Structures are given as structure tokens and as C-alpha cells.
Amino acid sequence: MSVVLDASVTMAWYFEDESTPTTDALLDRIAERGAVVPAHWRLEVASAFQVAVRCQRIDAIYRDASLAELGLLPITIDADTNTYAWLATVRLAERFALSVYDATYLELAHRHSLPLATLNIPLLGTA
Fold this sequence. Notes:
Blueprint: E1 3-5, H1 7-12, H2 21-33, E2 35-37, H3 41-54, H4 60-71, E3 75-77, H5 81-96, H6 100-112, E4 116-117, H7 121-124
Parallel strand pairs: 1-2, 1-4, 2-3
Helix pairs in contact: 5-6
């Protein structure tokens, strides 16, 4: 595993106006070395794609192809996200004024001693 990947970086790969050289480099790194994500990551990513379809930013064909492509990457879903949800995650959410969803990424990064790949401004402030 090379990083904890959050949904904000994931979505940047699929929207040209959000992509940067840094997010592109992260995609290459993850394709080569893998990433770990919290248990809710797939739902968060699917939701973001569905909102983009609803807003006519993309179509369902692009959404489905993108999700299939993501499924090919060596991304590991953390099996212990829920174990820490009511303890460490809630405390991190409180300490840094984060949503519990965002705090799951931070908790996972701490627990695995991995860097957190994020574009989320509140999470960037925890570094």
C-alpha cells in the first residue's frame, strides 16, 4: 500500500477540470503500488458519480466505465473501518472539526502510518 486514498482525489481523475499533475501522479503511484480506503469509499465514489449524472455533467455510460476502471486498480477496502468508528474516528472528527466520514480517512492513515491523498480542504488542515 502506498497511500490512503480519499474520494476527492478519486473523482479528480475522472473530471478534467479537477485533474492536476499531482492527482495524475497519484493515479500512477496507486496503479503501481496500491492504496487502502475506508469501507464507505465505494459508496462515496458511486454517489459522486451519480450526482454528476443527475447534474448532466457526465452520462451513465461514462459513470459505468469509470467505475469498472476503478475496480481494476489495486485498491484495498479496509475491513476494520467500523471497528474504529465509535472510538478513534469520532475523536478525530471532534478534534479536527471533521465529518465522521472525512475522519475515517484520517484514522485509517494514522492506523496504517500512510500518507493521506486528499483534496479535501478540512482534511488538508490536519497534516
